[in-house]
Structure formats: C-alpha cells, structure tokens
Amino acid sequence: NKRALFAQAGKGQVSRGDELLHDPLLDLEAIAEQVGFANAVNLSRAMKAHFGLSPREIRKRGRGGGDGGGE
C-alpha cells in the first residue's frame, strides 16, 4: 500500500516539506531535495497521502499560518 509506505518512511520529511512550502522562493524540486525525496513527484505523492492535499493546494491554503501573512 503506497499510503502506508509514505506514512512510515516520510512523516518527518513531509512535515519539513510542509514548512518549506511557506517559502515562495523555493520550488517543489528544491524542497524535495532538501527533505530527502528523490524528486518533486515523490514528495507530492507523500504530501497528498499524508495531508490529503497536493503541495500546490497546501500553498494556496497557506497551511500552518506562518508569520508575516502574505496574500
């Protein structure tokens, strides 16, 4: 099961990726590399499995509420 695989292997990676999504200067490939995924597709799949949202959807929603606001 893909979901179980990503949940087990990438919880910390996915959480860190979620934090890095708040930096608009980082693209998904850069984030994937920083958190240890082979590529953006794998990170995207893991985030979708973990959060139920794609990285693009997470960015649009501004998850985490960070400091500084933005849009």
- What structural class do the secondary elements suggest? mainly alpha
The tally of strands reads 0
Q: Which strand-content bin applies to the residues?
A: under 5%
Stretches where pLDDT is under 50 for at least 5 consecutive residues are 64-71
Integer average pLDDT: 80
Question: Which key features would you list for this structure?
Answer:
mainly alpha, single chain, 4 helices, 71 residues, 65% helix, 0% strand, disordered C terminus
Protein described:
The protein has 71 residues and is an all-alpha fold. The chain contains 4 helices and no strands. The protein has helices spanning 2-20, 28-35, 40-51, 55-61. Helix 1 (2-20) packs across helix 2 (28-35) and helix 2 (28-35) packs across helix 3 (40-51). The longest helix is centred in the first third of the chain and has 19 residues, at 2-20. The chain starts with a helix and ends in a 10-residue tail after the last helix.
Short description:
The chain has 71 residues and is mostly helical.
Ordered list of secondary-structure elements with their pairings:
Layout: H1 2-20, H2 28-35, H3 40-51, H4 55-61
